[in-house]
Amino acid sequence: MFTSAANVEELISNFHLDGATFRYSSFVPRLYNYVKSLGFKPGKMLPSRAFCSDENQGYPIIVITKHFGTFPFNHGRGGAVVATDRHAPYAEHGEGLVIIQASHVGYEPEDNRFGTYSRIRTKDNRHTACCGKLAGVLDWYLEQYRIAQSDVILEDCNGELCLRIDNGLLRGTRKEGLFLRLNRLVRADVEGKYTPVHTHSTSKSFFASEALQRQLADLVPALDEGQRVPIGNHLKPDMFYYRRTLDETVEGRNHQESHLIYPMPWIVTSPSPLLTAAQINTQIEFDRALRTLSHAQCFRDKCVFYISGLNLDISPQPDDPFPTTKFVPWAAFLRDRKGGQRIMEQPELVSVLREQSVENPDQIDLDTAMRGMSEAESVEIVAQAAG
Length: 387
Ligand SMILES: [Zn+2]
Description:
Layout: H1 5-14, E1 22-23, H2 24-37, E2 45-50, H3 58-68, E3 73-74, E4 76-77, E5 81-82, H4 87-92, E6 96-108, E7 113-114, E8 116-118, E9 127-129, H5 132-151, E10 152-157, E11 160-166, H6 167-170, E12 177-180, H7 182-185, E13 198-199, E14 203-207, H8 210-215, H9 220-224, E15 229-230, E16 240-243, H10 255-260, H11 264-268, H12 273-295, E17 303-314, E18 326-335, E19 341-344, H13 346-355, H14 366-375
Parallel strand pairs: 2-3, 2-6, 6-17
Antiparallel strand pairs: 1-18, 4-5, 6-7, 8-9, 10-11, 10-15, 11-14, 12-16, 13-14, 17-18, 18-19
Helix pairs in contact: 2-3, 2-13
The structure holds zinc ion.
Zinc ion binds near residues 131 and 132.
């Protein structure tokens, strides 16, 4: 999916939150009304969800149940990966198929921060990482980045800006770790080699590339006076990449990580790494699952609407029964019964949803439905006699 740095940067900047965020209580009826307008029949639609296993994804599921009048099929693995091997059983269970995939991220309204969420069922309403699955993936990469930020030192060598780089970061034979793109950081000699100006006991110093000298011109006076400064936030995503030994089985143990490793430098340098990771995960899953949907035989003669987006889990107050989760649509795919296919990008999708009514006369009252079930005549279970 990603072929260059420009490609990653464009994809990240194309995912808009401003003006594209819906409360679940407004998103789901709009979605229902939209697919109904496309010819999906009330009572014959079956939603499915590919959400993370986190309990805070339950409120969106309840709202989907209320508006579609049925519990959604479980189409997701932990971390909001679409379980494509469940397409066939899912397709068998309904006529109009509405798949909702969403990665998620916590949001703290008190200080407008992404990435944590108050767990109000813990003794002290602890705030923990959200999505925890993505946080588990990111930890190792963030740590490698922190090490590199302090192990590349800016200094002055004979009146020129130099980088003193720890030997650990220069060892190219490593199987795993953060690898510097020396061509961006260091000036090559006449033979095109990166030859150190000085070799120290555990590090080497190189002349900075001309591009880096221009970028860091403001630091030169301090370095002239003999100061050494860690590169810190000046280590930008186009200056490094990661390598890690991963199980690349599709939908296997390292599925998310093997997709996120290429854009990881942009994730770890983002002001909100868990938000950026969740956005990219959604973009990757939409691109990947769409291909399986458009080719699967099981969806022949079915109407399919597949929508991907981001669940923003607003951290609840201790007395809140549910979080006020919001949805940010990213893209959608429509396949009609005759096989016609169409992709909707975020601007079109948002405006189509905004045009829909939030009134849904087909929604069910969950209390009434529950009461009806408890009061209905009991079905007697008859055990088959052993043959
Ligand atoms: Zn999660």
